[in-house]
Specification:
Blueprint lengths: L5 H19 L8 E2 L1 H9 L4 E5 L3 H6 L1 E2 L3 E2 H6 L8 E5 L4 H12 L3 E5 L2 H7 L4 E3 L6 E3 L1 E3 L13 E3 L5 H8 L14
């Protein structure tokens, strides 16, 4: 039985996911979208489908959508998926939108999961911890940061312990960090 107020809170979270996704989706006009409901249907129907997780290893180590492959695994063998429907996801759809645009220029039938893993949790989509078909079911999901804690109330949200700015700074090459240019070795 859900906790009192959980339904209203989940509705609020879904509304916020939709708002955030709508803000940046126009930046990726070449990335068609698929809803979490449509993906759940495709998974049930066992369509020729590959789901690609484009998040960082730290995020993936918490959980992935059941049956998903990591981006590096997909890249290593993507020729075998040319005739598959490819659905990419991240936390909410920004990074996966970028990736879908790239895949489409390479001739893939690729789609961005609208609201990504956050929306997936709201349709009861299965998550697993660990790689491959043998991953253990989990209700934990990496939500990137406290501001992105929008997963279903049934899930346990996990996020970076470092401030988000420190996380993003770690992704920027040293050549673009002038404050590091003059440090002594």
């Amino acid at each position: 039985m859900p906790l009192p107020g959980a339904e209203a809170e989940d509705t609020r979270r879904q509304t916020e996911i939709a708002r955030l996704f709508a803000e940046f989706a126009p930046k990726f006009p070449g990335a068609p979208e698929i809803s979490a409901e449509e993906l759940a249907r495709d998974v049930r129907n066992n369509d020729r489908l590959v789901v690609v997780d484009v998040r960082t290893k730290a995020e993936q180590d918490v959980s992935v959508i059941r049956g998903a492959v990591r981006k590096d695994e997909f890249e290593a063998s993507k020729a075998e998926f040319k005739d598959h429907k490819v659905v990419a996801y991240c936390t909410i759809g920004y990074r996966s939108g970028q990736y879908v645009e790239t895949l489409r220029t390479q001739g893939f039938r690729a789609f961005n999961l609208k609201g990504s893993i956050l929306s997936w949790t709201h349709v009861g989509g299965e998550l697993q911890c660990g790689e491959g078909d043998g991953g253990e079911p989990t209700m934990r999901v990496h939500t990137f940061g406290k501001d992105w804690d929008l997963a279903s109330s049934d899930c346990e949200s996990v996020f970076h312990q470092k401030p988000a700015l420190a996380y993003v700074a770690a992704l920027v090459p040293a050549a673009f960090k002038p404050w590091t240019w003059f440090k002594k070795p």
